[in-house]
Amino acid sequence: MPDRLRVLVTRPEPEAGQWVQALAARHIAAAALPLIAIGPPPDPEALAAAQARLGEYAALMFVSGNAARHFFASNLALALIQQPLEAIKTRVWAPGPGTAAVLGALGVPAARIDQPAAEAAQFDSESLWQSVGADLRPGQRVLVVRGGEDGDSAAGSGRDWLSERVRAAGGAVDFVVAYTRGAPEFGPDALALARHGAARGGPLWLLSSSQALRHLLAALPGQSWAGARALATHPRIAEAARSAGFGQVFECRPALEDVAASIESQA
């Protein structure tokens, strides 16, 4: 592996490869080491049923770019959301600019997308709610599109902070799983790269998921992380890395510009 390697990108594919390319364009040498494997939804019929009912919802909330990609894998859903505004009033909520960019690339009109303010301290459900909460009316329904882990039901599992806010405002929430998240298969090369990241002076871990960190720890049981450095894109992920024993943990927002600036500051 190259000595100049500076960052290990742990996002699932295809984001990991896209981030490696984006960092390379900023002269930051990175390698993809996805710590989450993306699979099909556990209940395709439940997903199709949710897609067919888009007009019943005041908003669709996508927890990630992968949620958007897999939800709109069927042209049916995309065709519905692209109907004239007078035919379907559904808004599309994104927790941050990354998910919003994926939605735009999929063909969702920018005028339909709501996301946190550009100056928000974090890109997450709390910041999103600050942008959309005042517009939600009692009786309106929101569909949360998210991932699930192996064994989850069609509703999936995840942090329910935003759904609690919707209900408190008099709204109703439905859930649907658009994909599954699981541990990747770690071959010899991946394990060698992970051990390189555990060594003092090794590349910086770019962590965007606490679940990804759990997969890493499970792949290298007994590994000391005292010499490892991590850049976490949310305080909850940073706390998980510190609890795992990472020697240095830094935090930044998940936007590319913030990540790149933080990496450069660690040089």
List keywords for this structure.
five-stranded parallel β-sheet; alpha/beta
Average pLDDT, all residues: 89
What structural class do you assign from the helix and strand content? alpha/beta
Largest sheet: 6 strands, mixed
- Secondary-structure element pattern, one letter each: EHEEHEHHEHEHEHEHEHEHEH
Separation of termini? Answer: 19 Å
Helix content: 25-40%
Range of strand content? 15-25%
Low-confidence spans? 153-158
Principal-axes shape call: elongated
Rg, Å, rounded: 19 Å
Description of the structure:
The longest helix is centred in the last third of the chain and has 11 residues, at 188-198. Helix 10 (235-243) links the parallel strand 10 (229-232) and strand 11. This protein is an alpha/beta fold. It has helices at residues 15-24, 44-51, 65-71, 75-81, 97-106, 125-132, 161-168, 188-198, 210-219, 235-243, 256-265; strands at residues 7-9, 30-32, 37-39, 59-62, 91-93, 113-114, 141-149, 172-182, 204-207, 229-232, 248-251. The strands form two sheets. Strands 3-8-7-4-5-6 form a six-stranded mixed β-sheet.
